[in-house]
Amino acid sequence: MKTVTRSTCCYCGVGCGVLIEAENGRITDVQGDPEHPANFGRLCSKGLALASTAQSLTGRALRPEMRVHRAEQRRPVEWSDALDHVAARFVDVIERHGPDAVAFYVSGQLLTEDYYVFNKLAKGLIGTNNIDTNSRLCMSSAVAAYKMALGADGPPTCYDDLEHAQTVLFAGSNMAWAHPVLFRRLEEAKAKNPAIRWIVVDPRRTDTASMADLHLQIQPGTDVALFNGMLHHLIWEGLIDRDYIERHTEGFDALKRLVREFTPRAAAELCGIAEHDLMQAAEWFGASDAALSLYCMGLNQSSHGTDKNLALINLHLATQQIGKRGAGPFSLTGQPNAMGGREVGGMATMLAAHRDIGNAAHRDEVAKLWGLADAARLSDRPGLPAVEMFESMRSGKIKAVWIACTNPAHSMPDITKVREALRKAEFVVVQEAFMQTDTVPFADVVLPAATWGEKSGTVTNSERRISRVRAAIEPAGDAKPDWWIANEIAQRLEKRIANAGSTLFGYASTQAIFDEHRTLTRGRDLDITGISYALLDEAGPQQWPYRADAKEGETRRYTDGVFATGDGKARFHATPYLGVADAVNARYPFRLTTGRLRDQWHGMSRTGRVGKLFSHAPEPALTMQRADATRRGLNEGDLVRIASRRGSLVLPLQLSADVPSGTVYAPMHWNGQFLASGGINETTHGAVDPHSKQPELKHAAVRIERAELPWRVLAARRGDTLAMHAAVQPLLVECAYASVSFEEGDLIVLRAAHAEAPQGWLERIYAALDLPKGDDTLEYRDARRQTDKRVIWRDNVIDGFVLAGDIANGDTLMEQLRDAQPWLGPRFAAFSVQRQHAAPRDRVVCSCKQVKESRINEAIAHGATVPELKAALGCGTVCGSCVPELKRMCETAAVAS
Ligand SMILES: Nc1nc2c(c(=O)[nH]1)N[C@H]1C(S)=C(S)[C@@H](COP(=O)(O)OP(=O)(O)OC[C@H]3O[C@@H](n4cnc5c(=O)[nH]c(N)nc54)[C@H](O)[C@@H]3O)O[C@H]1N2
Ligand SMILES: Nc1nc2c(c(=O)[nH]1)N[C@H]1C(S)=C(S)[C@@H](COP(=O)(O)OP(=O)(O)OC[C@H]3O[C@@H](n4cnc5c(=O)[nH]c(N)nc54)[C@H](O)[C@@H]3O)O[C@H]1N2
Ligand code: SF4
Ligand SMILES: [Mo]
């Protein structure tokens, strides 16, 4: 029977509504929900691919697994054994070393209900504040700044503002790729009203930047200087609102004194941009009827990320670009439920419903609401934020850790230390939906989690809007929802930890959890006592605050100029400009920055399962400006070693005019499942912001040199890509460079390079890729030249190949494999080099319609415009994620001609 279930996309903080179609326990299709106020039916390329990422059970965590001793292999066990074991080990550590010897590391991708149970378990039952989340790597600078400047967490703005903003300032946000559906709304608003100005602050010329009226291509880490300089100019030009400053704010004088030295010239010089561009940006911002800033990781992921946020909020307060339609500082939430996590207080530095750990009255309130027998059970010791948590594990203080819905061995900065920490811990629990992640190998216990499509609850999106997530199918195998797992173990702990109070756990449903959660928000800034499952079912997603006596939620906050501070006034902060933590010098001359790809999601455990989502960026790469490369004698495609003071990795070089001289860029996604290394976080720096404790993931000083790896491998095979991936992945680390990607048509592609052939490696690759010797296999070997080649046919069509040593005819074989046309002529010709026929690397620009770069360029060469491209080729007509790139390709061609 076919069913359609209304739910929410599991990826970014836009929080698009989806309709999940399922049949016989399988998700068959996912469409945008036309009624959802975040997307009105639209989805981006990742959302549209949800059905294909969800379909296969290969590689899913299906059964609990555990080992009792480190030396053992984990083996499958019953749920009751795994739950009893985790509870017993946690009790043991707590009894021996106290509650702060255990830690929870959870995720902004958990649902609010999951999060709530984890937070109550750590803080209310165990009595430790050692519960932190990947939101520490993501939103914590934005949170710190909102609280310091406006008195409370959460954006004052809403999505409707996107349509009303007259000046849009994107700061450290590549919204065209990271929040695509909201970007579509901005594009439409600008198309309707060309007077709208876009300013983009980003060291790279991203798709977002290429559409801007003004791109401020600043040096990484210099945003505070820029915003201070803009404020200086606003004051000078009389574009500030003195009356508003007087009535609704505090602290302007100190700030004014500070920005005196940030003349446009001085600031522009620090940023590496033109002075008149800085002044232009300030004027467009200050003189606008409605200036909206949209900001994300380029501001937050910095060792002075809170200052970057505050300096931007200063601009809004000084010009009264806040609390009115189309204006305000709008922090874009990264993960689907980073907001929900903050609401339940699921971090080491906060308590439920935006309360503070350090505030005794707040602790008493929470203790009472939770029914704790003893209010003192709520610890007043702040918990350890992510980076410190893993450091404390590494130094042996934290003995047991429970990781849920995040992959720290990939996503934390300086991962050598994280791996050491996970090895050092006595007991590691990993609650995961997929087995192929870099953290799973460290687990003593794997708890299989139900994932998107299989679980229910709520999430809160970037505009404070709570949406229902609903299960369309049963969990895979024995997997269970995250809240259920936490609740089961909590009940076991409750029996063993003395004097916890009345029954704290024993939830029967997510609704029971939500009902308890909302009670805790009564009277708080995020009061949601008016929101219930029943209301969400009847009236759809709702924004907070939404009090019990209200008729609806608040769309915009601070419209009356009264802020959430004690005296109702917002606070200016004097933000000095400070340099990055990891200084460049002659030994480490490049500034490395990192970020996202359009079609991948973080550690790729989901998006990395489908070929289609690789087509836009098929290979990992380090991007460098051509002139920088030429000076070093490096060429496109060369393998380079990127080394920082902490670690190194090898990546292919990609030349691009999008990065400024001296800056290089690598996407954050590629990790040990797809590479011979753990990815770019081998090199990043664990320095954190003093207020938010967010690490500086956007900057590291690095050295780049050619990696001399003459022995090359190119292999590709059609078949069960997920099964082959699992077999190939353990072999990757044996080469200095290796990467795996998928292509449409069930293809897995392996690229590798090493000084010489590792012993016995190729034989294992043949086995992993199912290329046995046989009648359908052609083989060529030249031991002296370390050359080894194999091609396999099925019904006269090439079905796979491995080229090792000499990969000169790789492109030709790849094309044959992709096209799946019968092989003409003698088979041995497959090994002869046919360079002249080899097609150049052709990227897929439009992933929905699979339209390649070459076809688009050909049409552009014949004069096609974006609408004509859409009409003729279909590209850009489904999700629209590639439209910025299509525009850019047309513009580049126009400039060139
Ligand atoms: N496709 C896709 N979308 C996603 C995600 C994903 O994995 N894939 N993840 C989601 C999550 S969790 C998050 S947090 C968001 C992140 O969304 P974004 O923050 O928009 O994405 P990033 O690419 O990490 O970084 C944005 C930009 O910051 C720039 N930048 C680097 N250093 C600086 C600097 O010093 N100053 C300024 N002004 N800019 C700088 C980078 O060049 C980059 O273009 O995306 C969400 N959406
Ligand atoms: N260099 C660099 N590093 C970065 C960043 C950067 O820009 N540059 N960005 C940082 C940011 S902003 C973020 S948010 C982090 C993200 O980093 P992570 O949190 O590590 O990223 P994910 O890969 O999304 O991890 C989520 C995990 O949960 C699993 N999962 C999926 N569904 C479920 C479920 O329902 N339950 C459970 N228990 N598990 C599930 C997935 O398989 C996946 O392994 O990365 C950070 N790291
Ligand atoms: S913009 Fe894309 S990834 Fe983000 S919620 Fe919408 S469909 Fe999902
Ligand atoms: Mo994030």
UniProtKB/TrEMBL annotation:
InterPro entries to which the protein is assigned, alphabetical: Asp_de-COase-like_dom_sf (IPR009010), BFD-like_2Fe2S-bd_dom (IPR007419), BFD-like_2Fe2S-bd_dom_sf (IPR041854), CT_Nitrate-R-NapA-like (IPR041957), MoPterin_dinucl-bd_dom (IPR006657), Mopterin_OxRdtase (IPR006656), Mopterin_OxRdtase_4Fe-4S_dom (IPR006963), MopterinOxRdtase_cofactor_BS (IPR027467)
Keyword field: 4Fe-4S, Electron transport, Iron, Iron-sulfur, Metal-binding, Molybdenum, Nitrate assimilation, Oxidoreductase, Periplasm, Signal, Transport
A single GO BP: cellular respiration
One Gene Ontology cellular component: membrane
Pfam families from the UniProt entry: Fer2_BFD, Molybdop_Fe4S4, Molybdopterin, Molydop_binding
Enzyme class at the top of the EC tree: oxidoreductase
Enzyme Commission identifier(s): 1.9.6.1
Protein name: nitrate reductase (cytochrome)
Source organism of this protein record: Paraburkholderia diazotrophica
